[in-house]
Amino acid sequence: MRAKITYAVTAAVLVVYFVLAGDRGVMLLQQGTLLTVTFGLAVLILPVIGVWFLWANTQFVRKANRLAGLLEAEGGLPVDELRRDQYGRIDRDSADEVFGRRKAETEDAPGDWRCWFRLAVAYKDARDTPRARKAMQRAIALQEGRSVSA
Fold first, then answer.
1. Is 69 helix (H, G, I), strand (E, B) or coil?
2. Which residue in 16, 49, 108, 131 has the most C-beta neighbors within 10 A?
3. In 10 A of CB 16, how many CB atoms?
4. C-alpha angle 85-67-100 in degrees, rounded to nearest 5
């Protein structure tokens, strides 16, 4: 729940920023000189990119959460079997061990979105966020029946 609140607050702050930046861009455009119009267009590009990025990430999170719900209903969510240090951080060797099992499971069933979901969690636990995201994207695509490239 804490992650959802943090995400909502961050998204709200970003939306306020996009509105303020967009307003400044429009003000620059209204000045009408070559320099201010150029800067105004450049400033307006930032909120457009930001809104797209926020939308894409929100859709990704929504779809990943939907898969987590499906796996939970099936009883297939990965069990947290990781060792942790005294501060609650995941032990690196433990994460690598679980990752090895998840990777082998995914190699045995490369068309199963459930395996890719569990692999994404293992990548995240191993602190490899880019690969975790790619594995989750693959899980989403497989579950939605879309073709995926290797």
1. helix
2. 131
3. 10
4. 45
d(CA 92, CA 125): 9
How confident is residue 146, by pLDDT bands cut at 50, 70 and 90? Answer: confident
Residue whose pair of structure tokens reads 């293992």 in the numeric block: 122
Tokens matching residue 66: 């939907």
* pLDDT tens digits along 114-138: 999 999 999 988 888 999 999 999 9
Kindly report the pTM of this predicted structure.
Answer: 0.79
Tell me the torsion sign for CA atoms 58, 61, 63, 69: negative
- How many C-beta atoms surround the C-beta of residue 114 within 10 A? 20
Return the structure tokens found at 71.
């796996």
